[in-house]
Amino acid sequence: MKKSSTFLNLLSVLLLAAAVVAVIFFVNPMQSEVDDMKLQLDEKEAELADLTSQVAALEAMREELGSSGVSEEKLLLQVPEGVDQDQLIADMADLASEAGVDLHGMSFSAIEGDQTGAIAISASFDGNYQDLIGFLESIEKNGRKLRVRSINVQLFEESSVARANFSLLIEAYYQ
Q1: What's the confidence (pLDDT) of residue 46?
Q2: What is the DSSP string of 18-66?
Q3: Which of the residues 2, 9, 23, 42 has an alpha carbon 20 to 30 A from that of 57?
Q4: Which residue from 116, 60, 61, 113 is spatially nearest to 83, judged by alpha carbons?
Q5: Sign of CA dihedral 98, 101, 105, 108
Q6: What share of the chain is helix, strand, coil (3-state, %, to 5)?
Q7: Which residues contact 105 (CB under 8 A, 6 or more apart)?
Q8: What is the layout of strands, in order, in the sheet containing 102-110?
Q9: Is the overall model pTM greater than 0.85, yes or no?
């Protein structure tokens, strides 16, 4: 019986020694891999924190841009790409008819020395004074950016009705 307990004690010591040797040979080399993975994890966490801060900054900019009410589509409507004279003529004719003004003629010319992307429009209209005011208000409300540079008004009477012949110099903007 003593022999078997000594054998069992010796066997347990040998198994313990084998476990220690296994830990030294198998787990220690893996420890360097674990350390490398911890370093990679720390780098990835730093990258994640940086990207998270960038995303937060971009979202703040998007909210700020969205709150200003300006969108790319709206900007392109206000200041379209290219002069688009056909659309300008149609817009001016529509604005004139809505305001009850007769459009007699329009001419376009480049603005000398101007690098802002604007074209000058000279247009003449007939109507009464209230029609002129309505027409100018419709220009202000128009989707495209237009700027009235000068107004020339000539009043006359036609069949005892006060009428006005007015000429406008307007700038239309484009990209």
Answers
A1: 95
A2: HHHHHIIIIIHHHHHHHHHHHHHHHHHHHHHHHHHHHHHHHHHHHHHHH
A3: 42
A4: 116
A5: negative
A6: 60, 25, 15
A7: 123, 124
A8: 102-110, 118-127, 161-173, 146-158
A9: no
